[in-house]
Amino acid sequence: MRPSRVPLVVSLLMAVFLYIPIVMLVVQSFNAARFGGHWEGFSFIWYERLLDNRPVWLATRQSLIVAVTSTLFSTVLGTIAAWALHRYRSRLQDAHYLLVYSPLVVPDILMGMSLLLLFVNLGVQLGVGTVMVAHITFCTSYVAFVLLGRLQDFDFSLIDAARDLGAREATIFLKIILPLLGPGILAGALLAFTLSIDDFVITFFVSGPGSSTLPVHVYSMMKHGTPSLINALSVILMTVTFSLVLISQPLLKKHTQ
Amino acid sequence: MKLKFFLPFALLLTALLFLAGCGGGKPTLYLYNWADYMDPDLVKEFEELHGCRVVLDTFDTNEAMYAKLKAGATGYDIIFPTSYMAKLLWEEGLIRELDLTKIPNSVHVDASYLSNKAMDPGMRYSVPYMIGSTGIAYRSDRVEGEIDGWNAFERTDLAGRMTLMNDMRETLGAALIYLGHSANSTNAAEIEAAGEVVKRWMGNIAKFENEQYKSGIASSEFFLVHGYSGDLLQVIDEDEAIVYVLPKEGFMIGCDDMVIPVDAPNAELAYTFINYLHDPEVAARNTEWVYFLAPNSSAYDLLSEEVKEDPAVFVPEELMQRAEILRDLGEDNTLYIKVWDQLKAGQ
Lengths: 257, 347
Fold this sequence. Notes:
The complex is a heterodimer of chains A (257) and B (347). Helices cover 79% and strands 0% of the residues of chain A. With 257 residues, chain A is mainly alpha-helical. Chain B is built from 15 helices and ten strands. Chain B has helices at residues 2-21, 40-50, 62-70, 83-91, 111-116, 168-178, 188-202, 213-218, 229-236, 267-277, 280-290, 297-300, 305-308, 317-320, 333-345; strands spanning 28-33, 53-58, 78-79, 127-139, 162-164, 207-208, 224-228, 242-245, 251-258, 323-325. In chain B, strands 4, 5, 6, 7, 8, 9 and 10 form a seven-stranded mixed beta sheet that branches. Chain B has a three-stranded parallel beta sheet with strand order 2-1-3. In chain B, helix 6 packs across helix 7. Chain B starts with a helix and ends with a helix. At the A-B interface, helix 3, helix 5, helix 6 and helix 10 of A face helix 1, strand 1, strand 2, helix 3 and helix 8 of B.
């Protein structure tokens, strides 16, 4: 019996559905026309204008600083939270679960507004710090849930075995837990980074003077600016990301062999 | 053991929070403005002139900005809301009463705009920053004859190729002006008559549109559109066949103002900056860059011919007489809502 072709067709269609917008974006970034409706010729004009646009770069830098920091913190916090939620069962953990779960279901606008009210009432000056705290808050939940899924398959008898053989806690952590949970932690971290770098609603409310991130700036460009610049910026960011992945892939492979 | 892991991170986090709170030694001016709405070179020159740092943050709608301020967000020295929002901020006690002696250049602000149009004629709480208009743009390669006023929407030969704004006050206002009334009329009969006109226009337009008219006219899907000068300018910039017209019967203008919040950390520098922006030479350069009109009478003479002849930027004195600013009508707004809802229901 010949294998069905349906999976192939479906996955091809999915690939088209997922990647056509990105291809369009790359093409449009070289389109001289401001409105994507028609092709005005190949040009680097948006790249040139982007180089001159200092606010966009400042906002990009701000976004990257916030994303990297909140990824670091939320990955650590989320991993610890998932560990605690998986290992221990008690009333306290039920409450903990609810707390970790709620940022996933609370609408962004509500979370942004309530965080803003919290910061204002605490008398905290809004700025990069408050944006980071807000991002860590919601990223932690996502990381924790990715890790919880991962922990379902985690074989805890390995730890007992290591203890039997006289391994110390630090050794167990470094040689067993970390390598086994590594891919899950990485997946959680990547998710946290993505969520942080494109969050608009929460960031808008909790950002203060001097802490506008890229999404906040892009929305504001709709009125007077030229959002076409952002096509060019996206292509640059994508190129950087892909190159990093391409470079890191062989390194990672060597490591696991 | 877990505490040991957590402690350094907690410490680092607090350290970051504190660091974020401190700036360099220079005084810093925090602006809250729309993106790409000020010549960056002028800002750089101001920084050098006064040995300070200018930090720009942006918002995307007046309403979002208001929600944020109202909730208690602080730290900005100058905010650039649209006039109606400046008025609301003032009524809510969120912005300062201005001391005009600290803005000597305020004498250059267009007096006829202030006395006839502005919501805050005495500049008690706001100084006008940039003016834009609502008018008509058409494709000169597709439209026969000359377009000079709102009667364009009566033309049946353009049926299905025109758009009106999906905005109650803008569109009914245009019809009111077409009939010779004020766009801020509170006379029910006048507003109903305007509704009749819009109903007739609806037979000729493709649809009510607030966003896609830009790409629509660029791609020749529409030949004639009703929209904001700032939006249409971007399209005209790329296609010389598109022409912007200030309707001869009159039209709407809108203005973004500069205001200082009550709790501005550096109000003195804010005054200096507002004063700087209304220096005639600076205002003229800013207009040339932003392509909106800074209402500064002494700057008008310094504008290039190209800008002065462009109706999308420069509104000549005699036409300015016929311009109107949409005011908040309070309870009388319901008169408009009633007529507008009927029109939309019969669509």
